[in-house]
Amino acid sequence: MRYDLLSILLVDDNHHMRALLTAILRAIGVRNIFDAGDGAEALQILRNHPVDLIMTDLQMQPLDGLDFVRLLRNSPDSPCPMIPVIMITGHSTLRRVGEARDVGVTEFLSKPVTARGVLQRIGLVVEHPRQFVRTEDYFGPDRRRKRDPVAAMAKRRAGER
């Protein structure tokens, strides 16, 4: 993967976490790194700079990661509603992961952050992008992780007729 071609936006209200992520990204060759202290600042950066990927914290003030992704995916004036988002948090309970998934987060990374974890998540979103879906109450990457063999069989049978 050509990491030097990626533009990544880091969104975290903790300066030290942004510095750690920046160091990891620079070590793998990412040159274009933008950072923001909260979701509102991130939206402004996205309006002014082309970005390929967002890495955001879940808990921030005044606009937290969930609200930021919700606005990013659903706001009529969103600069890039289909951009991949990696949510980073120390609160990786099943409920929080479900909330993040339900607002349109692409991947989830638990703290403590490691270089291997960052590389793995970036690889997933860049090399294996997920199709976006729109329903009455959801817009974002397809939340299904596993192929449904029953649905695949029904689809195949429908094609046989």
Automatic annotation (TrEMBL):
The modification 4-aspartylphosphate is found at D57. Keywords: Phosphoprotein. It holds the Pfam family Response_reg. GO terms for biological process: phosphorelay signal transduction system. Residues 7-126 form the Response regulatory domain. It comes from the Bacteria. This is Response regulator. It comes from Phenylobacterium montanum.
